[in-house]
Amino acid sequence: MIDLPVPDASFHKFKDVYFITDLMETDLHKVIYSKQALSIDHVQYFLYQMLCALKYIHSTSVLHRDLKPSNVLLNSNCDLKICDFGLSRGMDEGRAASANDNNLTEYVVTRWYRAPEIMLSCQEYSKAIDVWSLGCIFGEMLLRKPLFPGSDYIHQLRLITSFVGTPKSAQDIWFVTNDKARKFMLGLPRQLPANLTKKFPSADENAIDLVRRMLILDPNERLTVDEALSHPFLESVRDPAFETVAKGEVEWHDIEEAELTKRNLQELIWRDVQVFHPNSSPTIEGDLPSEGNSASELKQTTAATAAAPPDNMAPVESAAPQNPVLAAATGTGNDAVMDKENNPALSSAKAV
């Protein structure tokens, strides 16, 4: 966000709010499924910027929870921004998020990018869920097709285990607390991890190693954002000066627990206005809420601006056509049923 102009009307009367943002001509989904050339330089640069953005987001103790190519905006200079925080939630630093906290549920992330711990109804999950989603996006950029295009819960879990391998024992899925989900996973036909050299024939060994380590079944063994940023695959584009963190956590209770009255919404919006215009003062009797980190402070800086792209990297075309076959799964189609489907893996322990 570039600016949030001060409303013209007095504080208790204003009705319109205007957001000024950078112009982003396209999104990563459209680029992946276009005829646009997507070199390994593009893949490195895009992944690096996504990791920088995620580092900042996580430093505010916020989980994005809906990372997918259509939520990654791009311009013709290959600058990248992460958008759509509609499913994001706050968490206490230093501990996993509980399904009982701030309405955290398994119904997050479009299915194709959902981490296995969410698919298996784990009661707690962590920042590792966003790393899994980025790993899926990374693999999709390399293949130019979805890595795990599951048609339902069972199919999704089968695709994941065909890639990472099936668990050898209950210890391998220690994080699965649901008995039926654990029995289901342990009852799957034995599969070894996929041969990623064959799966990604055009990728070098560093790219293959990074995608493998971002997509590990055990969330505690999965790479962290900082570990991914330090990986040799990103060495040529890395600039630690751009790997910034927030000054503090987002005051999440102000967003989630506020009573949604007209006056409260006006006060919260005005607090965001003051991030951009600290000298502005509302025409109203009474005090504004106490100062704190606002939602705008997160939204203003979650776009990662990395070092200049490699000289030989072609710009991204802004009018990349969308693949209609995939539109349903990356747009409204798959999202529309995302929060309504039941998890059949939990209703039956039998692997079919």
Describe the structure.
Helix 2 (40-59) packs antiparallel against helix 4 and helix 4 (128-143) runs antiparallel to helix 8. By secondary structure, the protein is mainly alpha-helical. It has one domain: Transferase(Phosphotransferase), domain 1 (Orthogonal Bundle). It contains 15 helices and seven strands. The strands form three sheets. It has a three-stranded antiparallel β-sheet with strand order 1-3-4. A two-stranded antiparallel sheet has the order 2-5.
Flag low-confidence runs: 99-107, 284-305, 319-342, 344-352
**Oligomer, anyone?**
single chain
User: What portion of residues belong to β-strands?
Assistant: under 5%
Radius of gyration: 21 Å
The assigned structural class equals: mainly alpha
User: Helical segment tally?
Assistant: 15
Biggest β-sheet description:
3 strands, antiparallel
Measured distance between first and last alpha carbons: 48 Å
Count of separate structural domains: 1
DSSP helix fraction: 25-40%
Looking at the structure, the CATH topology is Transferase(Phosphotransferase), domain 1
So what's the overall shape?
globular
CATH architecture: Orthogonal Bundle
Annotation keywords:
7 strands; mainly alpha; 352 residues; 5% strand; 36% helix; Transferase(Phosphotransferase), domain 1
Topology:
Blueprint: E1 26-27, H1 28-32, H2 40-59, E2 62-63, E3 72-74, E4 80-82, E5 89-90, E6 97-98, H3 116-119, E7 124-125, H4 128-143, H5 153-164, H6 179-186, H7 196-199, H8 205-214, H9 225-229, H10 252-256, H11 262-276, H12 295-301, H13 324-330, H14 332-336, H15 344-347
Antiparallel strand pairs: 1-3, 2-5, 3-4, 6-7
Helix pairs in contact: 2-4, 4-8
